[in-house]
Amino acid sequence: MAVEETTTIGLKCEIVTPEGLIYDGRADIVVVPGEMGELGILPRHASLVSRTVVGEVRVNESGNGWKPIAVGSGYVKMQFDRLLLLVNTAENAVDIDVARAQAALERAEQYLARADEPEVDRHRAEQSRRRAANRLKVAGKV
Ligand code: ATP
């Protein structure tokens, strides 16, 4: 039997959004944005289910370096060397539309400047600003 068939390399990582499977591959380590800070997940990590926040996922693919992905909030589950990340949104750094994110950031900041007005939803504007700022940060890593 070939070595490839008997050896499991790294952990299996899947990133899923309502739009579908955004990432499906093997990794040596995956870093996800946890509520209390970054979580670095290696093969044979203990079973885990945890919430994740808007931030950057970094997948280290053997031989291919780090792959940055901007994600919205969601959940991570790790079990039996399989990592499943369920998130609202996920974009590979190379696919991020920078002009769109800049426009979203400006829009959010305009709302926040008027946050004391009754028709402005401050929480919504803050979330929007967070998503846009995160996309710009992750896009800058390409
Ligand atoms: P916008 O106001 O520009 O739509 P948003 O933060 O409200 O920004 P989301 O609701 O988080 O957008 O995402 C909606 C969809 O658009 C998702 O599929 C997300 O991956 C995609 N998306 C949002 N912004 C960008 C961007 N700057 N580049 C690439 N895809 C994006």
Task: State the gist of this model.
This protein has three helices and ten strands; from the N terminus they run αββββββββββαα. By secondary structure, the protein is α+β, with helices and mostly antiparallel strands. It folds into two domains: 11-93, ATP Synthase, domain 1 (Sandwich), CATH 2.60.15.10; 96-139, Single alpha-helices involved in coiled-coils or other helix-helix interfaces.
CATH class of the largest domain: Mainly Beta
What strand line-up does the widest sheet have?
2-1-9-8-5
Distance between the termini: 40 Å
Bound heterogens, unique:
adenosine-5'-triphosphate
> Count the strands?
10
- Major β-sheet profile: 5 strands, mixed
Taking all Cα atoms into account, the compactness measure Rg is 17 Å
Structural class call reads alpha+beta
Descriptors for this entry?
142 residues; alpha+beta; ATP Synthase, domain 1; Single alpha-helices involved in coiled-coils or other helix-helix interfaces; 2 domains; 5-stranded mixed sheet; 5-stranded antiparallel sheet; 3 helices; 10 strands; 27% helix; 42% strand; binds adenosine-5'-triphosphate
Give a written overview of the molecule.
- With 142 residues, this protein is α+β, with helices and mostly antiparallel strands.
- The protein contains three helices and ten strands.
- Strands 2-1-9-8-5 form a five-stranded mixed β-sheet, with no helix packed on it. Strands 4-3-6-7-10 form a five-stranded antiparallel β-sheet, covered by helices on one side.
- Strand 6 and strand 7 form a beta hairpin.
- Helix 2 packs antiparallel against helix 3.
- The radius of gyration is 17 Å and the shape is elongated.
- The structure holds adenosine-5'-triphosphate (ATP).
- Adenosine-5'-triphosphate (ATP) binds at residues 19, 72, 89, 91, 95-97, 100-101, 104, 128, 131, 135.
